[in-house]
Amino acid sequence: MVSCFKARCAFSSWVRENIRKKECCFFEKGVREDVCKCGYSKADHVGDAIKPEDFTGESWDRYRHIREVPTDAFGDISFGGLGQKTGKYVRVSTDTSPEVLYHLLTEQWKLSPPNLLISVTGGAKNFYLKTHLKNMFHRGLMKVAQTTGAWIITGGTHTGVMKHVGQAVRDYALSSSSMQGKIVAIGVATWGVIHNRDTLVYSGGCFPAHYLMDINGQGRLSCLDNNHTHFLLVDDGTHGGYGAEIELRSRLEKCISGKRLGNKESGVTIPVVCVVLDGGPGTLKTIYNAMLNGTPCVILEGSGRIADVIAQVAGLPVTRVTIALIHQLMKKFFGQEYETFADLEIIKWTKMIQDIIRMPQLLTIFRISEDSHRDVDVAILQALLKASKTRESLAIDCWKRQLELAIAWNRVDIAETEIFTEESQWRSSDLHWAMFSALAGNKPQFVSLLLENGVSLRDFLQEEDTLCELYKQLPNCLFLRKLAKRVHSSRRSRGSPFRGIRHRPDSRQGKMISMTHVCDEVRHLLGSFTQPLYPPSTMKYHVNMTMEDTSASVDSRGPVKEDNAEIQQDPSRDLFLWAVVQNNKELAETAWEQCRDCISAALAASKILKKMAQEGSDADKTEDMQELANHYEKHAIGVFSNCHNSDEERAQKLLVRASPFWGRTTCLRLALEADDKSFIAQSGVQALLTQIWCGELSVDNPVWRVMICMVFFPLIYTGFLIFRRDEVIQKENEKSEEIKTVESLTGSTLRKNSRGSDSSSLQHLKPLGSWSRLVYLYSSPQVKFYWNIVSYFAFLFLFAVVLMIDFQVTPSAGEVLLYIWLCSLVCEEVRQLFYDPDGFGFRKKARMYINDLWNILDVLSILLFIIGLAFRLTSQLFYAGKILLCIDFVVFCLRLMAIFTISRTLGPKIIIVRRMMMDMFFFMFLLSIWVVAYGVAKQGILIHNDNRLDWIVRGAVYEPYLIIFGDFPHNIDNTAFDINSCTMNGTDPLKPKCPVLNENQTPAFPVWLTIIMLCIYLLFANILLLNLLIAIFNFTFQEVQDNTDRIWKFQRYELIKEYHSRPAAPPPFIILSHLYLFIRNVVLCRPPIVCKEFKNELTQIEEEELLSWESLMKDRYLLSTQQEQSQSMERRILDTAQRVTTIADQLEREEESSSAAMVKRLARLEEQVVQSTKALQWIMDSLRSQGLAAKEAQSLSQEPNSSFTTTTPDTLRNMSENKNGFHVNARQFHYPNSKITRFPVPEEKVPWEVSFSSYMPTYYASEDSGDNMDGSESETLDNYRNPGGRTGIRGRGALSQLGPNLTLDLVVTRWRDSERSVLEFLAVWDESQGTLALPGGPVESTDHLPVTLKRTMGKTLYGKISAKVSEGTKVFEGYVDDCRNTDNAWVETTVQNIHLDRTSQVMVDINNMVVKSNNALQWQEVSSKTGISSNQRDSLRQVAELHNRKF
Q1: What is the rounded distance in angstroms from the CA atom of residue 787 to the CA atom of residue 709?
Q2: How far is residue 565's CA from residue 153's CA, in Å, rounded to a whole number?
Q3: Alpha-carbon distances of 1433 from 131, 1305, 1316, 1411, rounded to whole Å
Q4: What separation in angstroms does the CA of 861 have from each of 626, 847, 886, 1026?
Q5: DSSP string, 1377-1424
Q6: Residues 232, 91: Cα–Cα separation, whole Å
Q7: 882: burial class by Cβ within 10 Å (0-12, 13-18, 19+)?
Q8: Which segment of 76-90, 474-488, 967-981, 1224-1238 scores lowest on mean pLDDT?
Q9: What residues are paired with 154 via a beta bridge?
Q10: DSSP classification of residue 957
Q11: Confidence check: pLDDT of 233 > 90
Q12: CB 1059: neighbour CB atoms within 10 A?
């Protein structure tokens, strides 16, 4: 509450300092006595504004008597009713700076800067909108606002188009979830027309102000719309006058459109689009001004009035949009309102509409009949992209602007249809910025789209800075916080102070995060057994990259060491890792599909995510990480299953190959570290483990044969036992025989190379020798295991014999053998502890050793044996030592259960027993409560003050415990009491103390109480708790049964690996092997022998072939997954519902469009009938009297409902010959550099030959102060008539003289190189327009250069080029459509091309001037993409044709 109060105080202070309102400071009676001319009553004025009645000093003037004062209406507004809708509001002056308002919106009201500004305009009065069109408008507007993060700006009142926008916001709020973004709808309304505005006024701000919407009592005023979220109430100091907000709204929209998109440094600004529904003449003016400013407009056909008028003529040529047609459409769509329009207004609106449809790139008509397959949101976004395509200033980079807009809007559908078309070709480097934006902005669909359209990840991540910058752009997540801590600790260790990340780890600390920190943190998450993923020297992507191998277990042989030193970098892996560490499923999925080593990548992701889930504190995020880890485990399972089904041998290679992309670890190791039991439980992985378990023996050998050969080893030479080498040779022979058979039958020699390779492989795979068979038999982990079982049983037998028969004071030979045997077991445990082929390090290896239950039992048994042995050798503790050894024998026997873990039948049961033991522990805690409760109560009732601790424990704990098993005590009932079985005072240590006795020497305790207590105890302990235990065991069994097989398969690996690394000799002979290993590794310091069964280094060729095959299997897996998803029941239901909705929408649209088309056809038919009738009447009248024909025809065509224009056949022919040839710039409403407005001249009235009786142009000359002219000057003007037709203004305007004003444009061209590949022209920078232009200017004669070029070129160069003018080629000469033209003065231009040789002296001088000009002179390619005016672009086109170049 305190922080909220402080925030409100700060906001109120800021508003009072920066926001003003307007108020009248001079009261003057208006129409009514108590109402001022400002519209407010006398009571609403301040005291000093009311003057005495005899005051006659001055009259009221809005510019002098309306002043600005601090605003008194701001804060939160509450509309009440259902939902208690609230918003923000402020009363602002019309002169408020738009920058202040933007600061208010973004900084004070905390709105995120928009990616799009939607200005909705149209009818201010309530109008009817068809249901389907209304639904489409609501849905489309909300969709575009929600997906793009747009702001919607309207008039803010509860009428007309503003009401429709408010309803759309309301419908969206009701249908959307709270997780979706809130729609920002800003209402810019006039303060003076707001009904019930007094409730909003309070000098300190209202938090909130309770606003009442009184629609019925508002009268001429308007209520605010309760569905808008923010209100800017514009105050001009008057009351009751609409339109005060228009100018400020326009300036605010222009200010917002000038802001950078997403606050980036790029040149793309926030786009603005105008959406029009209904509307009148004011809306037409708004559309016209918006399009002149380059703002695209989307008009909804069918919404009514001016929107339908523009929609009707939008597809027509300008020449067909006549005054008569506009009359007809105005009458049709405005109804009775049409009668109030003057003819001059219709002419002006016709000119506006013609100018509007002349800018088709800015005009988009949304038609229901034609746009049946798209919504309003698509039309709005396509309108913006269409407008950006045709901007001359951004002609070169228009596609970049479009793509940046699409990414900012997160509309991949727009990018697919409008930008990445079939004819477009993209280079990877051109899209790198877009890829970075999509990744940093978390837009996975755009990432996929960019990858599909040519982005190469190898090129994108070529530089280390790119990936490092991506890590700096990480959102606030666990990995970023961990990274910040690592950076902090590294800086602190170097002694440098660290600030910034300490409090905000996600604050984009520029140079603080490096790839070294990322590498260290990733290695921490993966495990220390992996090598660093990023070399410290460089990170450029080459296929092979050398790096010093720091592993302690690398083989010293030459070739293997070289392979180990090679590190391959994969940009897909880097991108995948970047997405995984931020727990971003969509981006990670896209990157994983690009990964080469996909199984390792999926298992590494599972390991990283599970590790982060363990270290995270947020329960929801931890659950998400665990879910994503399981997702990638499923991916790894799916790909590996396809691999195993396709080729078992290759699949097994994938499991044990050292991955160069993931720290030279293996898939198998990653799965084990990630605790991915489901992956390990796969048949393919188990087949590999079984193969390793059997060693070189065949997996098909029965166990009994192996056991027989263990004792009678000569049987291995008889074929009694099958070796794997024999199986391979047999398969190769069978394959060779099959190939020979096929070739002999077909006569084909295509398999010659195959036979050669097979024969060489057969020569390589020679049968095993006698010694090799013997070595492979006894080195098999399976045989080692069986020998160790036999040895362990022998050890236990010897241990039991010594304890029961041969335990003498002086150790016998059997006991000494037992001690030697135990010594060999101790040596083996030490060897297991220090054996580290995976490079875990001693600390983790020790932690892994202790975490194994069987190792704990081993350590416990050895410690007990050593302590018992020490006691046994001491005469005083001889018997205690024997007791410890007897207890130790129990531990050794429990350790015997470990031998069953290899059994498929008993192994899972041991897991169930371990889980039940945990349940038993918690059950015993619950049972002990009842045992102690009953035992203490019973002991206290029966026995009085027994101080013997052993008998107290026996009576309070032991006897109640035995009762559970049916051993009922005899001292709780008088009938079974025997005084001789107890001692009266507790002096006999062998008898319990007698209960309290009465005078008759019988127990004094109440028998009924003890019996009732026993019954209750038995009821709860025997019946309730024991059955509860059974139920718990049953539940545990059912729960674990389904997973025991999976858990057993996972734990089987460690047993197999243990016996694979174990020496072949069983204890106690294993001590000889330990002695050999000690001498070899410690004394001789030889490196350990590396086995390839669990980790194999492949050559580069093998690696590439295996990864290519794995990628193929991954593609098959993804395809099958997509098919399964598409065929799932949920997907089918969703697709069916979507299709039904689409069909219903299409039927509704077709129904409306068909009815609208029928009405349109009937109207056209009626119109044609009327025209035919009038034409026939005109023909009849012409036949009757030839002299009156033209007059009748003219009168016929001038009727408002007629579609004919006032033209003669000659005029029509002239217009058809000059179709679209009338000047346009010369008829713009606003004359440049002045406040003069032209008289509207529609297209049909441009030619002088066409009668235009109402034509009354304004006179203007730049030096004249007015438009008064005498008769002689008027006659002089009549001598000069613009050859292009009427312009809407008389006089010479801003030109220097009446009649033609000559100008010369110089096109100086050259070839860029000697091969004439590119034609270039010399351009000058026009500072006034901010664009490039051709060198030129006004001239007296076209034989000389413009004098204005002297300043740009210098006198020397000016003179040399002047001498070349006569040698140039005249490209064009004639009238130019210039905005300065008038009816009596116009511009005529001559375009002269001077082509210079690259080696000429003039070219040298020009090049020197270009270098010195600071870009005032530039060489530009002759191309249509050059940003110059349209007239000069036409000149360049002609120059290109002159030199036979494509423009």
Answers
A1: 12
A2: 63
A3: 48, 12, 21, 25
A4: 38, 19, 11, 33
A5: --TT--SSEEEEEEEEEEE--TTSHHHHHHHHHHHHTTTSEEEEE-ST
A6: 6
A7: middle
A8: 967-981
A9: 187
A10: I
A11: yes
A12: 21
Percent of the chain residues past pLDDT 70, beyond the cut = 87
Element (H, E) at 565: helix 558-565
Collapse the DSSP code of 302 into the 3-class scheme (helix H, G, I; strand E, B; otherwise coil) and give the result.
Answer: coil
> Rounded to whole angstroms, what are the CA distances from 949 to 204, 929, 954?
81, 20, 8
Q: What is the pLDDT of residue 1269?
A: 46
Q: How far apart are CA 68 and CA 51, in angstroms?
A: 20
Write out pLDDT tens, residues 1401-1410: 888 888 888 8
Identify whether the C-beta of residue 436 lies closer than 8 Å to the C-beta of residue 547.
no
Residue 773 identity (one-letter amino acid): R
What is the C-alpha to C-alpha distance for residues 278 and 306, in angstroms, rounded to an integer? Answer: 6
> Which uninterrupted H or E stretch holds 363?
strand 363-366
pLDDT in tens, 1116-1174: 999 998 888 777 787 788 888 878 877 876 776 666 566 656 766 777 787 788 788 87
838/665 Cα distance (integer angstroms):
8
User: 279 Cβ partners below 8 Å, 6+ apart?
Assistant: 121, 122, 123, 161, 286, 287, 304, 305, 306, 307
Alpha carbon distance 524, 501 (integer Å):
20
Q: Which two tokens stand for residue 339?
A: 């009668």
Q: What is the rounded CA–CA span in Å between residue 592 and residue 577?
A: 9
Which residues fall within 8 angstroms of residue 1279, CB to CB, at 6 or more apart?
1298
pLDDT of residue 347 exceeding 90, the answer is yes
The count of other CB atoms within 10 Å of the CB of residue 1061 is 17
Task: State the Cα–Cα distance between residues 96 and 248, nearest whole angstrom.
Answer: 8
State pTM to two decimals: 0.74
d(CA 206, CA 193): 20
The dihedral through the CA atoms of 1044, 1049, 1050, 1055 has a sign that is: positive
Sign, Cα dihedral of 37, 42, 44, 46: positive
Q: How much is the pLDDT for 101?
A: 94
Short-list 826, 910, 819, CA closest to 869: 819
pLDDT digits (tens, 9 = 90+) for 709-739: 988 888 888 888 888 888 888 888 888 888 8
- What the block records as the tokens of 1351 is 């300043």
What's the Cα-to-Cα distance from 1349 to each of 470, 1345, 1352, rounded to whole Å? Answer: 51, 7, 5
Q: Cα-flanking dihedrals φ and ψ of residue 1407, to 5°? A: -65, -40
